[in-house]
Amino acid sequence: MEHTVVSHSWLIETLGEVRKYAARNGLPALAEHLEQAIHLAHIEQATLEGQDSEGKKRSNGENGPDDQSR
């Protein structure tokens, strides 16, 4: 199965709209949970953007702090 990195901005925007609805209509706990979901979606999207089409971390040619190959 091929993994492709796609923009999930539509999902984040939709969660934002539902969060606004919840906040305006007396559903503060739901609004708070949706805020957390939006935050998580941003984190996961950033993680996906750092991966190639096989789900492997993209290399930018720099060694990170955990690189043992030095």
From TrEMBL:
Residues 45-70 are annotated as: Disordered. It comes from the Bacteria. It comes from Roseinatronobacter bogoriensis subsp. barguzinensis. This is Uncharacterized protein.
